[in-house]
Design brief:
Blueprint lengths: L22 E7 L4 E3 L3 E4 L6 E3 L11 E5 L3 E3 L5 E10 L13 H11 L1 E2 L1
Parallel strand pairs: 7-8
Antiparallel strand pairs: 1-7, 2-6, 3-4, 3-5, 5-7
Length: 117
């Protein structure tokens, strides 16, 4: 009887990628969004509210700011309070990037904030 082996890739579902200390803060997710844990957030300059960061935005949120810590944040009906990470080490393939952003395009900026991917 011969043994059969197969190769499978392993992709953890967690967003945490290491031992760097995680620090959270509370904020407001702007209305009209339904995000999950690991969303890379930007902050609107005028209101301080958080949104999924998109590189083409011009309201300040084009700059990455934090990572959503809540499992689910449904703000489709209006602004909601959320918790977000301002430091830590995260597994990039399990993060959600807005239009125009990737792990590579945001890595240096996030590192400057204390967020490592």
């Amino acid at each position: 009887m011969s043994a059969h082996f197969s190769k499978q890739s392993y992709r953890p579902k967690a967003i945490e990628g290491g031992d760097f200390p995680q620090v959270t803060r509370s904020g407001t997710l702007a209305a009209g969004q339904n995000l999950t844990r690991g969303a890379v957030l930007g902050r609107i300059t005028a209101s301080g509210k958080l949104v999924l960061s998109a590189s083409a935005s011009s309201d300040g949120s084009q700059g990455v700011f934090a990572i959503l810590a809540d499992d689910e944040a449904d703000a489709t009906a209006g602004d909601i309070g959320i918790t977000y990470y301002v430091t830590g080490h995260y597994f990039a393939p399990n993060l959600t990037f807005g239009t125009g952003h990737t792990a590579d395009s945001t890595r240096d900026t996030l590192r400057g904030l204390g967020i490592h991917i």
